[in-house]
Amino acid sequence: MVFLFPKLLLPVPFHRSKSQSSPKLNPQQFPLFAEKNLNLLFSMANAWKRDKPFRLLSPKLLFLLFSSTLLLLFLFFSFLTPRPSNPNPNFLTLNTNLLSTSIPPFDCIKSPQAHPVVASVVEGVRYPFLYSLSDFGKLPDKPHKNIVRLLKGKAFRKPDISVTIQEILEEAKGEGTNGFVVDVGANVGMASFAAAAMGFRVLAFEPVFENLQKICEGIYFNRVADLVTLFEAAASDGIGNITIHKLVGRLDNSAVSATGAKLAFKSNEEVAFKVRTVPLDEVIPTSERVLLLKIDVQGWEYHVLKGATKLLSRKGSQAPYLIYEEDERLLHASNSSTKEIRDFLHSVGYHDCTQHGTDAHCTKKD
């Protein structure tokens, strides 16, 4: 017996009584069944294709294309950005034995990555580099806006301090890269990586853990682990501990003063945490040259400078080029002032200071 279901001629078994005899099928009929069934299947498939609406891009395909685009852009920028090369290979590895053992360098290998991140290439500088700022976690920068900027070929952030750092170091590069750049208040490493991209060794001080994670990611992106040494500490005028205030949801604007932390951004969400303090004179050996000292610590600049008295007292060109933030509001919140800083700098021989926005640039002459 043959059932028609659905529109297919199939030889199928059926229930029968004992009185019924078994159906007898001629073996020559099977090719006919097969041919009819195949024709019906093709007809059904063609009808299904005609009825199904045409979709150029499905959600899954769009997701795959978007993910592939991001990956290709990341690889493109990774290969586009030159790896820093030091013309003095004998000085590539930082001799941490020369540094104070009271505060060991921060170990990026043991630092967990907070969230998946997107690397951004810094444009507008002679020596480009990558840095980590946007992510898909709880940090402040909205990732969807940054991704749109990335797809448009725009940088996440302007170079800012990076251009200044590279312009200053470009003049010193004629004498080689035998010397340190000290970055106090490193934030996410914009100044540190600007120097490391030129082959200079960097000592970076940063107390905020989320920023330390970002610097570690940048060290990996730029392949500068042999050039950048990172310290989880606040530079100050004494060894000990201090309370830092940071705004929730921001990578910047952490300060010793709670008032100072809120000056630039209005926010009631504030977290206080303790961090180690160390004077720069305790970390930097007198035998090592420091080419540039950059300080941006939201009003704590005077205490950092006091802790670097020996370094700043070096003669003539052996003293570092100094850049520090000079914001009277922030200084006042930390019980210091512009005058107090300038008087101290004069006492150690810095008589030539010029203002560049909220930053002061100071040098010594031979």
TrEMBL record:
- Membrane-crossing ranges are 61-80
Q: Where is the Methyltransferase FkbM domain?
A: 183-350
Return the Pfam families for the record.
Answer: Methyltransf_21 (PF05050)
Which keywords label this protein? Membrane, Transmembrane, Transmembrane helix
Q: Please give the SUPFAM superfamilies that the UniProt record associates with this protein.
A: S-adenosyl-L-methionine-dependent methyltransferases (SSF53335)
What InterPro entries does UniProt report for this protein, alphabetically?
FkbM_mtfrase, SAM-dependent_MTase, SAM-dependent_MTases_sf
| Residues forming coiled coils | none
Stated name of the protein? Methyltransferase FkbM domain-containing protein
Q: Which organism is it from?
A: Pisum sativum (Garden pea)
Task: List the top taxonomic levels of the source.
Answer: Eukaryota, Viridiplantae, Streptophyta, Embryophyta, Tracheophyta
